[in-house]
């Protein structure tokens, strides 16, 4: 054992450094803490793996360390012993049942630590005992990439360290003899140079080649959006940490930004005559990072009977009454989705209602599964809206001309009751207002100014829609400023909030609305249409105040058309390249559930359609058939020419120390080429075989001699020598078989 430790201690030390580097992100993701303790346990695991080979010794020691580590992180108010094991088992089963039943959509900490600890022990064995360096490296890097994608971690330096340590391990494996000092020195220098190269490349690539990075993100955005729309990212992220970035409606919008993953869970279905948006609430207070709700207490009532709501400022005509039948999932939400216009709903089965007038929100206790709404649609004709003026007080006009408007004094300057939605925080830079003035300086009238800003956000090619690439806002920067001038990548929250802030910066009253878009058309029933509204249909948009019409919704998010606007306005927004049926059947973006975002799930970027719409269906079918044929041909080629090589490699991976077994595989392959007599001695057969096949150049004879020495003399062959001969034999057999089969 002493000689083994002397030869392998440095190899084990490097393996230990790889393991603690690999485990650090896991501790951070699950907020477990106590990294030092885990490092000590990993050190003990590496020491045991280095010192002992027999499983009767290693397995009990691994099990003891494994269970004690679980105990330290999850003591469950028990002392370490049988009672704790029983309690932990019960906790594990409970967590497992929650995952299986769908009660939780993430991997609980207990299950995650059980899996990761097993993973780390397996890696220690692979690295130290079996020296499977690159297999271990690929496993670690694969897990780290999952953390980068779904848990918003920056893992550049850990991956660089793991890569360089793996290269150094590989060099040590190539030159294990102590006499080859020069080769070891070269290996160390090579690893240091590689570390410097990777670190330097990682640091300076973005600065030196920003155009390349931007192009890569832009060109591959459609692929990521497509996978996101199919729910692939969401399915994978469900088994990471408790996800903060899946789509759905949330109450907390104080911190917007960051990527989101689509959640296709159905919330309710609506049987109605036409598509429209479903508003849940509005918010007035922009903080520079997100939105805050009004602090006014809600008006609480008991059984409200019949609820009738409409915009009191709307003086236009309403359409004839139509019925909307809502069917909610179980359990139903506590908020009431509201259509624009006037609606009446019978709430006899509701025990209590909360109405928050400042936020236009209705909360219901014990929401029934089925609910009927009598609805009258409003009319917002663009020709009439162009006649509405935006009366800006003289004090505010002077501020606009001087460029000093973002100072929180709008409410005092504006005297248009009941409009109060024009305040902005000091965090908004003046360049936001300058952009709004530039966009609207050639426009006359309120409507044209609003449409100019909407058109800019919706169609300007410098902006890119993406749910998966949207960055987080830097701590010292305003959310809208960062989106408009720096990132220019976002989804509905970015576009809708930016439009509100741009409008407010030039004195136009506006506010932020959120809820759901019309959803997905799933069935036509005569004049009625049934829509399915999912978490992925949650959405946000701006509302602008027009005197005589009240609060009117607009849609600045690319690829969106708002079905609540008039036909004239819908025609003007043809740049979205969507007809009404496309809007009805498309998915939308949604809000973040935790960490305070209202990241709304929207329709796919127009780039996403490149995956399916650029090619006719017939071409796609031929392409798919060709891909299947190419894969099948590749599999056949590998099995036809490389079956023996694959079989040998698999056996070598499973039993790397079993020389006799690997020789038996080679012997069977030789007997398929040259038959052997039933009583013919093995050494004579090896000589005869190489006389007929001289390309083996004594390799098969040498392997046979080593095999007989091991079987009959009990002399284990030198591992390096035997591996070298085995590789030579496998290579010759592979070339020989390919030549013969041709």
Return the structural class: alpha+beta
Categorize the overall geometry: elongated
Low-confidence stretches: 234-244, 393-397, 399-419, 566-620
The biggest sheet, with number of strands, parallel, antiparallel or mixed sense and barrel status, is: 7 strands, antiparallel
Mean pLDDT: 75
**Helix-residue proportion:** 40-55%
Radius of gyration: 34 Å
Strand ordering within the main sheet: 6-8-11-7-1-16-15
Strand content: 5-15%
Give the distance, in angstroms, between the N- and C-terminal Cα atoms.
51 Å
The total of beta strands comes to: 18
Number of helices: 25
List the helices and strands and how they pair.
Layout: H1 2-30, H2 35-51, H3 55-73, H4 82-101, H5 109-129, H6 133-151, H7 156-174, H8 181-208, H9 210-229, H10 232-237, E1 266-272, E2 278-283, E3 285-286, E4 291-292, E5 299-301, E6 305-309, E7 322-328, E8 342-347, E9 352-356, E10 361-365, E11 370-376, H11 382-385, H12 394-402, H13 410-413, H14 430-440, H15 446-459, E12 464-465, H16 479-487, E13 489-490, H17 492-505, E14 510-516, E15 520-525, E16 528-534, E17 538-546, E18 550-553, H18 567-572, H19 580-585, H20 610-613, H21 617-654, H22 659-673, H23 682-692, H24 699-712, H25 719-741
Parallel strand pairs: 12-13
Antiparallel strand pairs: 1-7, 1-16, 2-14, 3-4, 5-9, 6-8, 7-11, 8-11, 9-10, 14-17, 15-16, 17-18
Helix pairs in contact: 1-2, 1-5, 1-6, 1-7, 2-3, 2-5, 6-7, 7-8, 14-17, 15-17, 16-17, 21-22, 21-25, 22-25, 23-24, 24-25
